[in-house]
Amino acid sequence: MQSSSDSAAPENLLKKDAEFIYRHRARAELKMPLEFELCPGRKIGGSNPCFIIAEIGQNHQGDIDIAKKMIRMAKSSGADCVKFQKSELEHRFAKRALERSYSSPHAWGATYGDHKRHLEFSHAQYKELQSFAQEVGIFFTASGMDEMAVDFLHEINVPFFKVASADTNNIPYLEKTAKKGRPMVISSGMQSMEIMRNVYQTVKKHNSSFTFLQCTSAYPLPLEHVNLRIITEFQKEFPDIPIGYSGHEAGISVSVAAVALGAKVLERHVTLDKSWKGSDHAASLEPAELAALVREIRMVEVALGSPVKQMLPCESSCHSKLGKSVVAKKAVKKGTELTLDMLGVKVAEPQGIPPEKIFKLVGKKITKDVEEDDTITNDMIKH
Predict the structure, then answer these.
(1) How far is residue 226's CA from residue 217's CA, in Å, rounded to a whole number?
(2) Residue 325 sits in which domain range?
(3) Crossing angle, helix 123-136 and helix 64-77, to 10 degrees?
């Protein structure tokens, strides 16, 4: 007979246990690939190279010629993709937000609306930049900073949608974007793990191709708040999607470390001159830095190599010169049963039985006379 406490067991599950069951049951309902095509012919995840996004954002200063120079620079530096930020300002900002005065040293207008309008490219200009990127030979996309902007980016057929951190907890936006069916790259700045679980469940109902980027929304980002360990936490929490990193720190070392930890997408802001007006420039990479970042990442990817530990062909020279073998500590007569005190380990000529097998020789009989320091080889042992 069930007790009253037994019958109420589902209601008495610990919260974390209930969350675990829900999370893994939901994953079983729609298994997602660890590897997927982010852009035509370019997969991310698995053993594919890290996909490197050069975030131009609004560092073009509102000048389409500067934007084109930046696209060309990103391509020559080895980045895979350039990314801008597209807004339909009246849909992104409330009227009062646009009308407020803006006296920052980075301002391009007297009001915040004037400032943002100066930096915002038209639809025609976006199409022009997209065509230019295609001519240069680099993928082109943008963060859709509001739902209308996402509609426009979908219309011009960007390969994937980037979700900025400010919209990561915007559930209606996420659902509408996910339903369009394009791959999604989702930043996690200003969010908690609980929110990211909710984002995961929201997106996966409609779209199986997305990735999370560890991100901290500060410009520039102090090293103590980078929190690269979250990359590995995301990998454990969401094992069926690729994980990446969006960095705002100075320099390139941290971003290279992120790739070493398994980041499969890397996003960094870029600029032609860090001294230019605009709050993002100080946290951006200049051309030489971007080129160095790409070069270092590709070197690290080669160095990551294989997870299989074995002696490699490149080690044969060292092994033949320095590798040790079992030798006789003293002269031993044919037919003698070996004991441990008869055996030693030295660099020997010729090489013989490796040291890790020394204990297996104890109790075996030797088939020929050996002198002190002679190499013990397999053909001397009676098996």
Answers:
(1) 10
(2) 313-380
(3) 30
Are the CB atoms for 352 and 383 separated by under 8 Å? no
Looking at residue 307, the DSSP 8-state letter turns out to be S
Question: Long-range contacts of range 160-166, CB-CB < 8 Å, 24 or more positions apart?
Answer: 160/38, 160/39, 160/184, 160/185, 161/185, 162/53, 162/83, 162/187, 162/267, 163/187, 164/85, 165/189, 165/190, 165/191, 165/215, 165/217, 165/246, 166/190, 166/217
Q: If we measure between CA atoms, which residue out of 357, 347, 345, 352 comes closest to residue 377? A: 352
Compute the distance between CA of residue 184 and CA of residue 230 in angstroms, rounded to an integer. 20
How far apart CA 329 and CA 344 sit, in angstroms, is: 5
Q: pLDDT tens across 306-365, in order? A: 999 999 999 999 999 999 999 999 999 999 999 999 999 999 999 999 999 999 999 999
Residue 184: inside a domain, yes or no?
A: yes
Residue partners of 134: CB distance under 8 A and separation at least 6: 140
Tokens linked to 380? 């001397």
* pTM as predicted: 0.86
Q: Pick from 286, 304, 322: which residue ends a domain?
A: 304
Q: Is residue 29 part of a domain?
A: no
Q: What is the C-alpha separation between 225 and 217, in angstroms, rounded? A: 10
Mean pLDDT in residue range 208-227: 97
pLDDT at residue 25 greater than cutoff 70: no
Residue 204 is encoded by which pair of tokens?
């996966």
Phi, psi for 158 (deg, rounded to 5): -65, 150
Q: Distance between CA atoms of 186 and 49, rounded to whole angstroms? A: 19
pLDDT, tens digit (0-9, with 9 covering 90-100), for 97-116: 999 999 999 999 999 999 99
Q: Of the residues 304, 325, 350, which one is the last residue of a structural domain?
A: 304
